[in-house]
Amino acid sequence: MLFHFKDQFPHLSTYWDKYLPHQKRLEVPAKTILLEEGKVSQQYIYIEKGCVRAFFNNNGDDKTLQFFFENEGLTSLPSFVNDTPSDITIETLEPSVIYLLPKKYVSQLMDEVSHEPGFLKMMLQIFARRQMHYSSLLISFIRDTPEQRYQNLLTERPHIVQRIPQHYIASYLGVSTVHLSRIKSKLAKGKPHF
């Protein structure tokens, strides 16, 4: 579960090395479903190369929650932990190289690492970072206009704008593709010309 944090916690490298053989490496095309909404998550996903999207279906309309890139990991955590149906779908947006670690080995890894000094602090730091990210997104949806959300995206996560198709960005921002085009046009007109 923690392979993407191995560089931040090098003192735990023996654990990473031990569980590498249990990961399944896959080279998959774009639009590959890694977890389907309604299925129980049984794998932790690590992205070596490519881009992955987490989304849910809202009456036939996809709503994008998050994008994940190289050296990031993900799963539908409530589904993975509680053996409940996932409320999200996870799919690749680009041809990707991913590793899957079955839940059985994730549980074993967590049991072993939990005995290490500082493990609890490390886990709290990891969860706090994710929580801060999702809290800031929620606050932005309540407080900011779609234009401000797009500007925040340009400033804070420009790689999303560079790599992700526009209709997914619109879904992520909670606007239509037409509205996103208007926002981009308005911002382009407001740029100074030299």
What descriptive keywords fit this protein?
single chain; 194 residues; alpha+beta; 8 helices; globular
Chain oligomer state? single chain
List the secondary-structure elements in sequence, H or E: HEEEEEEHEEHHHHHH
**CATH fold descriptor of the domain at 3-115:** Jelly Rolls
Amino- and carboxy-terminal Cα gap: 49 Å
Under the CATH scheme, which class of the domain at 3-115? Mainly Beta
Name the beta content range. Answer: 15-25%
Any idea what the radius of gyration is?
Answer: 18 Å
Major β-sheet annotation: 4 strands, antiparallel
At the fourth CATH level, what is the homologous superfamily of the domain at 3-115? Jelly Rolls
Low-confidence stretches: none
At CATH level 2, the architecture of the domain at 3-115 is: Sandwich
Mean pLDDT, to the nearest integer, reads 88
Structural class label: alpha+beta
Shape: globular
Pfam families: cNMP_binding
Domain Cyclic nucleotide-binding: 34-110
Protein name: CRP-like cAMP-binding protein
Short overview:
The protein contains 8 helices and 8 strands; from the N terminus they run H-E-E-E-E-E-E-H-E-E-H-H-H-H-H-H.
Please render the helix and strand layout as text.
Elements: H1 13-19, E1 24-28, E2 33-35, E3 43-49, E4 52-58, E5 61-68, E6 72-74, H2 77-82, E7 89-92, E8 96-102, H3 103-113, H4 119-143, H5 146-156, H6 158-163, H7 166-173, H8 177-190
Antiparallel strand pairs: 1-8, 2-7, 3-6, 3-8, 4-5, 4-7
